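4.2 Preliminary Data

To establish feasibility before requesting continued support, the project team ran the inverse folding procedure on a target of 382 residues. The structure was first converted into the token representation described in Section 3, and no sequence information of any kind was made available to the design step. The complete token record follows.
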């Protein structure tokens, strides 16, 4: 409806495809002083979110979800680490700078709406424009009306918020968050007080905003709703579980996923580099986290056959775990660009699988299928 108006170097990080993360948290720690010592709310958080992404943040109560949002919004400051949002070093802003920056860059939607009860719906939406002076006076009311039209509440514009249902108040809160046309919308449990039908309608509105180019981050306890986002950031005990570890082994518990994240070593291979070679000893399990790898089968006196391409969240090396501790194929980084993989030693993986029979069975079935496919393709090549 409206025109929608990035390393240590205080400059936005290039993520390799010419764009920059609109949100970039680098080794963020947050400790609170208590009577019994420091309480660790966040530990070594690294998180990149690109413009136009819809990201769900999930985790148990007390896991650090709200503290993470507070780092991004500047409501709280990291004990150490850096926070860059839309090209600004948020952790370096003073309080006056922070208020103006937040008003123009972020739209925040709260669980309990936070609408002022003594002024009308349309006045609630105009308040952010008045504070930041982002639009001329004559344009503010028409813009607020247009936003209410977008959330299908234009007919409620001059009522007090208390005259509206909870679902209607939440839609007003979303319209208010969009008042200054911010590039980023952050919602903390926005459906927590809504029935399932209304919650779905609110999520539908978020999807429409993403389609218009907004970046949306939503905290939710509802894993079903979280699955509707582009990506999910699972936070446990103040640490973020690697999303590709979670994608590769979804049957692990949150604590097991966190342990796997801590143990996995990140390795990068340049384009075309061989990662593992057929017939050599196998001792590790690999999860692709960036780029593409190629599973290749050799042909005598001819070029190799690319049997399979694996992208982020896919795994290799599982066959060796269950079949003779040797590699059954060669795997190399795609010639189109570098590849990043997460590596777990077999002894580490064995410990995890001892705690999750479902994960062991899933990987065993995958290993068997891939072995059969490997042999069938070799027979076809021969």
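Position-by-position output of the design step:
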């Amino acid at each position: 409806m409206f025109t929608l108006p990035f390393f240590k170097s205080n400059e936005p990080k290039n993520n390799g495809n010419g764009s920059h993360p609109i949100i970039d948290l680098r080794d963020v720690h947050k400790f609170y002083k208590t009577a019994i010592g420091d309480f660790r709310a966040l530990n070594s958080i690294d998180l990149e979110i690109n413009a136009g992404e819809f990201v769900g943040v999930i985790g148990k109560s007390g896991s650090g979800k709200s503290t993470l949002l507070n780092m991004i919004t500047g409501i709280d400051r990291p004990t150490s680490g850096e926070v860059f949002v839309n090209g600004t070093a948020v952790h370096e802003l003073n309080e006056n700078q922070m208020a103006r920056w937040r008003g123009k860059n972020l739209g925040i939607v709260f669980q309990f709406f936070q609408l002022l009860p003594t002024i009308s719906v349309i006045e609630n939406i105009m308040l952010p424009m008045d504070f930041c002076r982002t639009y001329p006076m004559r344009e503010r009311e028409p813009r607020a009306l247009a936003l209410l039209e977008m959330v299908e509440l234009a007919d409620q514009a001059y009522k007090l918020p208390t005259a509206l249902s909870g679902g209607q108040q939440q839609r007003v809160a979303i319209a208010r968050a969009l008042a200054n046309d911010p590039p980023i919308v952050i919602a903390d449990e926005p459906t927590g007080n809504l029935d399932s039908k209304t919650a779905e309608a609110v999520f539908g509105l978020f999807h429409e905003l993403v389609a218009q180019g907004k970046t949306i981050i939503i905290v939710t306890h509802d894993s079903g709703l979280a699955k509707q986002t582009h990506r999910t950031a699972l936070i446990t005990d103040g640490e973020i579980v690697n999303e590709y570890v979670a994608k590769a082994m979804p049957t692990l518990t949150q604590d097991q996923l966190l342990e796997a994240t801590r143990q996995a070593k990140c390795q990068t291979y340049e384009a075309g580099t061989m990662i593992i070679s057929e017939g050599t000893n196998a001792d590790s399990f690999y999860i692709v986290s960036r780029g593409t790898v190629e599973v290749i089968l050799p042909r005598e006196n001819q070029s190799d056959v690319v049997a399979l391409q694996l992208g982020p969240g896919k795994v290799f090396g599982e066959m060796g775990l269950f079949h003779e501790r040797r590699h059954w194929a060669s795997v190399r980084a795609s010639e189109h660009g570098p590849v990043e993989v997460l590596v777990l030693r077999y002894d580490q993986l064995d410990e995890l699988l001892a705690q999750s029979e479902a994960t062991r069975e899933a990987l065993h079935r995958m290993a068997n299928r891939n072995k059969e496919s490997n042999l069938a393709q070799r027979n076809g090549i021969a």
